[in-house]
Amino acid sequence: MQDEGNLVRRATQGDQQAFAHLYEAHFDRIYRYVSFKIGDKVEAEDMTQQVFVNALHSISSFKWQGKPFTAWLFRIAHNQVVDYLRRKTKKPVTLLNESLLGSDSNPQMVAELNLDIERLSQATQRLTEAQREVISLRFAGGLSIIEVAKIMGKSQGAIKALQHSAIVALRKTLLVRDNEKVETVS
Questions:
Q1: pLDDT digits (tens, 9 = 90+) for 57-91
Q2: pLDDT recorded at residue 45
Q3: What residue spans define the domains of the chain?
Q4: What CATH topology corresponds to 1-93?
Q5: How far, in Å, are 91, 119, 132 from residue 122 at the CA level?
């Protein structure tokens, strides 16, 4: 694969093949991020496509500003998600990703996985917006601490602290719910 900087330079000059390589290299990460944020697989596919349409229309004005190209793509994706969530009046719901399941999946295991995903989704709603964004970028987007710091305009230490506090808060929320279930069963 060619150097990303070279691909971006060529894409900014109108090279469609270079943009196609960038699309292929980054589509999955952007899709996972969008899907995690909105919880709807079909809508996430459409939104991810729109992110790249917007990027294609704006690529000629892209300027290196000390941030990776992926930061620019994730900023476009973030703006798409924000616009989408503003239009939605109901709370986002995380749908079970069928790719996690095989064709021979145990129905009980599928139900338990679905409950776990729902519990995690509800727990993430209790996080601050910054914590949710860090969790989304780090784990759904698969970005490094350095990349997240550049995208969010924060120091690496601040991102590490946000990630740590988010994980601690998620653990507490999930443990409290587990304990409440045990008490109601007793």
A1: 999 888 877 778 888 999 999 999 988 988 875 54
A2: 93
A3: 1-93, 105-186
A4: Rna Polymerase Sigma Factor; Chain: A (1.10.1740)
A5: 10, 5, 12
C-beta atoms surrounding 27 within 10 Å: 16
Q: What is the mean pLDDT of the chain?
A: 81
Please state, in angstroms and rounded to a whole number, the distance separating the CA atoms of residues 91 and 115.
17
CB 56 within 8 A of CB 15: no
Please report, in angstroms and rounded to a whole number, the separation of the first and last CA atoms in the chain. 59
Pick 11 or 120 by higher pLDDT. 11
pLDDT at res. 92? 45
CA distance 120 to 115: 9
For domain 105-186, say whether CATH 3.40.109.10 is its number: no
Q: Are 144 and 154 in contact (CB under 8 A)?
A: no
